[in-house]
Design brief:
With 361 residues, this protein is an alpha/beta fold. It folds into two domains: 4-224, Spore Coat Polysaccharide Biosynthesis Protein SpsA, Chain A, CATH 3.90.550; 254-350, Hexapeptide repeat proteins (UDP N-Acetylglucosamine Acyltransferase, domain 1, 3 Solenoid). It contains seven helices and 28 strands. It has helices at 35-45, 62-66, 86-93, 119-129, 184-188, 198-208, 228-240; strands at residues 4-9, 29-30, 33-34, 50-55, 75-80, 105-110, 113-115, 133-139, 174-183, 213-217, 222-224, 255-257, 262-263, 268-270, 273-275, 280-281, 286-288, 291-292, 297-298, 303-305, 308-309, 314-315, 320-322, 325-326, 331-332, 337-339, 343-344, 349-350. The protein has a seven-stranded mixed sheet with strand order 5-4-1-6-9-8-10, sandwiched between helices. The chain is elongated. The relative contact order is 0.13. Residues 253-356 form the Mannose-1-phosphate guanyltransferase C-terminal domain. Belongs to the transferase hexapeptide repeat family.
């Protein structure tokens, strides 16, 4: 029997605002479709047929879009948390919808990770090692922002170390990559009805009790889409073919222009740029590595790099954006220059020439 999966999609995405003011993070488009579509399509390609979505923030938007999942060849169910329960609490909260027996494997995915993980290999590792929980681990150059997961020579997890600060604490470059296989009975043993963190509570307690936690290092593509800069990069990498997904709606390449978008012949789109439904890009605009969401307008001569332009937003002529997020419905007037993490809130209006960078800064 193919394993079933739980997708944790309840987070508020506060680090991604203003992208997530009106849209939950998993529904923000990446490479032209909601990011969650890529995760569901990859699970289906790995043989998963039944997925339970653990929703919370803006929960009402998921089901109208995905329905019962049949368009993706899946059977989807939705469980909404009334109060945020944390990762472990969310997993426990959907346990009643699972069909697996006590010893069967259940996949769990965080809803904000873009990865090329070999899902079938993770399940295979879980089965062959006889583990209670198996974790996808990836290696990173600077592990200080993550929880470290050292393993022994057989891949068995030996400790969980929260974000290390001193060089002595960095005993491995392996981090928890946010995808797991649980033995079903382990899920049922998580305390119900209260917030639980699998990272800080469930996994360390299991380890302390002598349970078998297995790590599988898979160093294919991996990106935490928690920040606007990372989200924009992830979308571009999907279009460029660096990150794998069966759900990209078009050919891989420098640009992805969805069917109802209009791009002027003299505009230049590069670096995995996406122009979504109904968006308009004017003459001589240059857009690199960026996402222009549905119905947005980029006026002639604008230059946009590594940025995201929200749904229905308008970018004025000759305006320069670099590393910027413009919220849904916002207007950035002509001849502005915004850089390096600037965020324009939903429906904000920035007059023409309001923000400029001088060359001697």
């Amino acid at each position: 029997m193919a394993p079933e999966a739980i997708l944790l999609v309840g987070g508020k995405g506060t680090r991604l605002r203003p992208l997530t003011v009106r849209t939950p993070k998993p529904m923000v488009p990446a490479a032209g479709v909601p990011f969650l579509t890529h995760q569901l399509a990859r699970a289906r390609a790995a043989g998963v047929e039944h997925v339970v979505l653990a929703t919370s923030y803006l929960a009402e938007v998921f089901e109208p879009y995905f329905g019962d999942g049949s368009a993706l060849g899946l059977h989807l169910e939705y469980v909404t948390e009334e109060e945020p329960l944390g990762t472990g609490g969310a997993i426990r909260n959907v346990a009643s919808r699972l069909r697996s027996g006590p010893d069967d494997p259940v996949l769990v995915f965080n809803g904000d990770i873009l990865t090329g993980l070999d899902i079938e290999a993770l399940v295979g590792t879980h089965r062959s090692s006889g583990a209670d929980v198996s974790l996808h681990l990836t290696r990173v150059e600077d592990p200080r922002a993550f929880g470290l997961v050292p393993t022994d020579g057989t891949g068995r997890v030996t400790a969980f170390l929260e974000k290390p600060q001193t060089p002595e604490e960095i005993v491995t470059d392996q981090i928890n990559a946010g995808a797991y296989v649980f033995r079903r009975s382990v899920i049922d043993a998580i305390p119900g009805g209260r917030p639980v963190s699998v990272e800080r509570e469930t996994f360390p307690e299991l380890l302390g009790a002598g349970a078998h936690l297995q790590g599988m290092v898979d160093s294919t593509y991996w990106l935490d889409l928690g920040t606007p800069h990372a989200f924009v990069r992830g979308s571009a990498d999907l279009v460029l073919g660096r990150a794998p997904s069966p759900a990209v709606p078009g050919r891989r390449g420098d640009r992805l222009v969805l069917p109802t978008a209009r791009v002027a012949p003299g505009a230049k789109l590069t670096g995995g740029t996406v122009v979504c439904e109904g968006a308009i890009v004017g003459e001589d605009a240059r857009i690199d590595g960026s996402t222009v969401l549905a119905g947005a307008v980029v006026e002639p001569g604008a230059v946009i790099c590594d940025s995201l332009v929200g749904a229905g937003a308008r970018i004025g002529a000759r305006t320069v954006l670099s590393g910027v997020v413009v919220g849904d419905g916002a207007v950035v007037g002509e001849d502005n220059e915004l850089r390096d993490g600037a965020r324009v809130w939903c429906d904000a209006v920035l007059p023409a020439g309001a923000v400029r960078f001088s060359s001697d800064q």
